[in-house]
Fold this protein.
Amino acid sequence: MLERRELFPQVIELNLQARRRLGCCVYLVFSGSEWMLMDIGYEDTVEELVDMIRQMDFPLANCRYLIATHADADHVQGLQRAKQLLPGSQLVAHPEARRILETGDRIASFAEIPAQGISISMPDFAIDREVAEGDKLTLGDISLDVWDTPGHAVGQLAFRFGKLLFSGDNIFRDGCVGSIDAHHGSDIPAFIESLKRIQASSVEWLLPSHGPAFRNDRALLQSAIDRLDKYQHMADFGTCAVDWPLLDEWELELAKGVLPE
Ligand SMILES: [Zn+2]
């Protein structure tokens, strides 16, 4: 038997449970003997995670949901393997994440990044249930509210559970946000809206998909919002920017024949 180390009541994070970094954050939420997992990470850690869950005395037959917060390989590669070990569970994803996973879109899932030599094998996915904004996931006598929080990726979900928000790759404790990449479906204006929504909410704690949980610190959120607001008008993330004011200035200068000073 393993003693359960709850991060918050009814919430266990499996890296914290193991006291070492296994991969992305894997949240186990439970109500009575029923439980669910949010993300799972890579296939090669699935058996260790499931074994740990068994040792914490959660009946394996009582896993109701295996959730993909979004379609990134480092979050979901192991979900199909987990489903084999937890056959009573449903694989749950947003319709856009389902499309990426079921069509094997290796660019959008970050399974294939040739410039960095990344090529990750992905299983054939079959998602059992789609959820999106406004849905509720019920588990025993609790329920989680589904939020659509696009920006880092299309089809990225967050889940509100009382004062907690399972916040995916929206923002991390150091103020970094999930990577911005047009091929991945990133959308900076949508990202800003997702961050503003989190910031304005009464959620007190953010439970991200990477790194430790942290307070919903409005100033930290604002610094990320301000940074992304700048990116919208900069070439740095040009494939995701909405405009580039330098080119407007240049047009005016060209018309006047302005020379460098
Ligand atoms: Zn991630």
Summary: Residues 218-231 form the longest helix (14 residues).
